[in-house]
Amino acid sequence: MAETMNQPAVLLVLHDVAPATWADYQPFVAAVDALGPVPMTWLVVPDFHRRNALDAHPAFRRLLAERVARGDELALHGYFHDDQEPRPSNPRDWFMRRVYTHEGEFYHLSRESALARLRTGIDVFQRYDWPLHGFVAPAWLMSDGTRQALRELPLSYTSDPQHLYRLPDFTAINAPGLVWSARSAWRRGLSKLVCEQREQRWRQAPVIRLGLHPVDMRHRFSRDYWLKTLERLLMEGRVPMTKIDWLAQQRSQLERAA
């Protein structure tokens, strides 16, 4: 750890991890494993779209346990990863919940609803003896009620596209992230241009997050981009870390400087 304390880091984060999305991720994960020890953070959905409950997939659970044993991190990523709350009541909510995404599960939840769903997700991790430190809301969308609920739970962090937040006080830490919108060819082309520009802007950043989604893995253009970007950042000297390990390193540095 001492050797890497002052080196810039890269955090490889797999979103929407579930039995239904493993086929998308499997070739990419194998390619990353072939590069050497590259720890990843897996954002796990306990019951993806209400038809992929982890309880019904023991082989997939064993896979996740094996990844933890390798040094990877599992984080809670919503519970259902869909939005079945009452219809939007104003134009902004309609845009966020019907245009930007249909999967903003925690965008409209009250404190009580968010707390109940989060506790159910935490119970899943505890049932399978998976260490749990972080929660990431689907599409990074959180209601005020969700934020209130997170202050009451034994979690260490949450995040949005450009920050990590220490819980329970939501202390913001700059952690710029690259992410694609890969649903169509023009979106993939634009995403590549934007991410290349941002990577250049962030060359001196202490950390860069790579936020991958299953749809990225379904197109060679986007899949190759992520693998080549990871390889380049590693060649440039960035240390691959999980989110929680990078946060622990940052805390250690602050304590040493105090």
From TrEMBL:
GO biological process terms held by the UniProt record: carbohydrate metabolic process
Short name of any one Pfam family annotated for the protein: DUF2334
Record InterPro entries: DUF2334 (IPR018763), Glyco_hydro/deAcase_b/a-brl (IPR011330)
Protein's name according to its UniProt entry: DUF2334 domain-containing protein
Organism: Pseudomonas fluorescens
